[in-house]
Amino acid sequence: MKKLLSLVLVASMLASLSACSGKTTTPETPAETKTLTGTGKGYGGDVTVTVTMAGDKITKVEAKGDKETKEVGGKAITELPAKFVEKNSADVDVITGATVTSKGLIYAVKNAMDPKTNPWPVVETTNPGSVTASKVFQGFGFASSGRKGPGVDDTSVQVWSINEVFADVLFDADGKILYIYVDQLEVATPNYDGEGMPHLSGFPGQGGYSFDSNHDEKVDSKTVDTEENLKAEIELWKTKRARGDAYKVGIGTWTSQMNTFEKLFVGKTVAEIEEWFGKYTSDKNGRPLKDASEDAAEKAKYDALTAEEKTMLAEVTSGATMSLKDAHGNILAALKNAYDNKQGLEITEADSSGFGVAFSDRVGPGKDDTDVQVYSINQVFANTLFDKDGKIVSIHIDQLEVATPNYDGDGMPHFSGFPGQGGYNFDSNHDEKVDSKTEDTEENFMAEISSWVTKRARGDGYKVGIGTWTSQMDAFEKIFVGKTVAEVEEWFKKYTSDKNGRPLKDASEDAAEKAKYDALTAEEKAMLADITSSATMSLNDGHGNIIAAIKDSFANKETIKLTIK
Q1: Where are the domains of the chain?
Q2: Beta strands of 3-56 (E only): which ranges?
Q3: Backbone angles phi, psi at 327, to 5 degrees
Q4: N or C: which end of the chain has fewer CB within 10 A?
Q5: pLDDT over 70 for what percent of the chain?
Q6: Architecture of domain 33-113
Q7: How far apart (Å, rounded) are the C-alpha atoms in residues 417 and 424?
Q8: Cβ(395)–Cβ(383) under 8 Å?
Q9: pTM across the whole model
């Protein structure tokens, strides 16, 4: 009893002392509350988040994505905010079936919390970081193929398309890829309903083609059967990268999926990529294998993989599920062609790499002996390395010219139009006399396109004026090195004919060309004499716009910080 009274007394005394001292117990200061906003790229467009934080703790996340599909992307917008709060982090698992929207929201939260490390907007790039090698080779690869489809239009007229893959690749001495940039051109008949798809109606005189002008899966008319329409269609051609974010393929855009594959390819040889393709993609459609495939053969192939291999594939298919080799294009063939074409770089460094294209039509050259017009389509490809000041340190230009088969030039790639258009006059033995018409069949369509080769691939047999096309192009490339694109344009404007784009020469019979040449200094005339001793062909005429392709390569350049030592 005494012990209990003593304890009470002590407690009472402590309370009195506390009161006398004037001190009171205070609660901890509430953590500062702040609201942050962030943006990321979803499947249909930008997705945004509002993140509420109390100190370092995420207390609430609101997500929006008006352009995401409700059934797919909407699931991520609904479910992910709670996961961010629960984990108190942006690093959460994606929602199955809504990978692209999920990744966009994850980035948006990171952008909100740390915008310096995760800036917006994001510049899409395949930039591998700084690249250093003792020897570097550059190769340009090309692969073309025809496709029947997709499907027929509502009037039962077949849809056809042409696919070309372009690969700009840097290899080390062991053949391993240091940097890669892949793009593609897909051109369909205008009865295809996909918005943004480049079109070709065949050649003038073939009657035009069924046309779905408003992409509602119903043919409205036929395209106009004129030279003007041929020119207009080709001027609108864009590669798949140039078609931008509007061009969706499966789980993402074509560009985002190709970027995923490019990152996978870096560090591998072409042979190793072919092995990867053989082991990890469907034998049926060339797409990366996925878990729980409904196809028995694909399922068996996937199930035979190790857990580590399945994890690797899960990472790949979270960003890319499209095919590497199917009717849409043979990406593997373009890579192999790039390796076969590789040439050593005689430089020590480069800051960026750019790939550019330019498309144009040509009426001619001339007509055949039955008075049927010859037409051709020209595509110029420029693979360019620039220094930090935008000056060209290395450039490789190639070109594809495809003519109607009534052109008599030996080795010229041909295109007869699409099956159902009746074929085209054919000079089979190149004697300037039409022998027949090409077969109006699917087999001929496929065979013509698969046989297309670039001007460099046509080799020394392809003569142009004073030399081969390749030797003349090599001479121009030497002129371009050390210049910016703007300086190349200035050089072209000052030192070539305003009439045909060819380098000026002494004693021209054209009055305007002669006056332009005579106005030059003795030093400039000597420079031109040196050039025209090896290159006289045009840099911009009906055969192709080389200047435009170089300009496009600068517009598309990516930083690579290449060092060769």
Answers
A1: 33-113, 130-344, 347-406+455-565
A2: 33-41, 46-54
A3: -65, -20
A4: N
A5: 93
A6: Alpha-Beta Complex (3.90)
A7: 7
A8: yes
A9: 0.83
